[in-house]
């Protein structure tokens, strides 16, 4: 990726990879199917009228959990702006946490084998001023977004250094 490929004047939105949404949905469906059939096999006799009730209860719980998984995935995202990184979280009760890019010392990317294959990973930023590590977990294209964060951070530091210089007349 060339330096000119990144537009540092626009905001970038990133969220957890959709692959994890799919993994969670498949895992939930397998769990519900297994528990449903296990309970039906162990506790219900053939022809018992409670079987449709069990099916309805599992169906309703499944829909509620599927919606909560999707809402959590959709309403937790990060915005990289020209001077800050913001974490937006929440559906009914919105929370916003903003980190000044100037306070970030280093940006690192961690990707496992699956992350390299499917294009996701973790971005970890160190902020000694805040005394904490900032983690962006399982985001799409972590290398691209880490470069954007790092370039924005360096641009801010360069602008700050240049603003301290008094012009010679």
How would you characterize the overall build of this protein?
With 169 residues, this protein is α+β, with helices and mostly antiparallel strands. It folds into two domains: 20-72; 75-163, PH-domain like. 47% of the residues lie in helices and 25% in strands. Helix 1 (18-43) packs antiparallel against helix 2. Mean pLDDT is 84; it is low at 165-169.
Short description:
The protein has 169 residues and is an alpha+beta fold.
Could you report the average pLDDT, rounded to the nearest whole number?
A: 84
User: What fold name stands as the CATH topology of the largest domain?
Assistant: PH-domain like
Total of domains = 2
The geometry reads as elongated
CATH classification class of the largest domain: Mainly Beta
> Could you tell me the strand content as a percent range?
25-35%
Helix content: 40-55%
Order of helices and strands: EHHEEEEHEEH
Query: Order of strands side by side in the largest beta sheet?
Result: 1-2-3-4
Q: How many distinct helices?
A: 4
- Characterize the largest beta sheet: strand count, sense, and whether it forms a barrel: 4 strands, antiparallel
- CATH arch. level architecture of the largest domain: Roll
What is the terminal-to-terminal distance?
40 Å
Count of distinct strands = 7
Instruction: Specify the structural class.
Output: alpha+beta
């Amino acid at each position: 990726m060339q330096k000119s490929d990144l537009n540092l004047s626009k905001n970038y939105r990133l969220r957890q990879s959709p692959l994890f949404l799919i993994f969670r949905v498949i895992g939930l469906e397998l769990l519900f199917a297994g528990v449903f059939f296990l309970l039906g096999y162990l506790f219900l006799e053939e022809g018992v009228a409670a079987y449709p009730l069990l099916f309805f209860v599992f169906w309703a719980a499944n829909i509620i959990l599927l919606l909560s998984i999707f809402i959590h995935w959709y309403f937790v995202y990060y915005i990289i702006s020209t001077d800050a990184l913001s974490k937006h979280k929440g559906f009914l009760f919105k929370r916003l946490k903003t980190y000044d890019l100037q306070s970030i010392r280093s940006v690192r990317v961690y990707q496992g084998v699956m992350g390299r294959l499917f294009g996701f990973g973790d971005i970890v930023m160190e902020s000694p001023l805040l005394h904490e590590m900032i983690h962006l977990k399982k985001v799409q294209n972590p290398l691209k977004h880490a470069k954007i964060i790092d370039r924005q951070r360096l641009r801010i530091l360069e602008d700050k250094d240049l603003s301290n210089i008094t012009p010679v007349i």
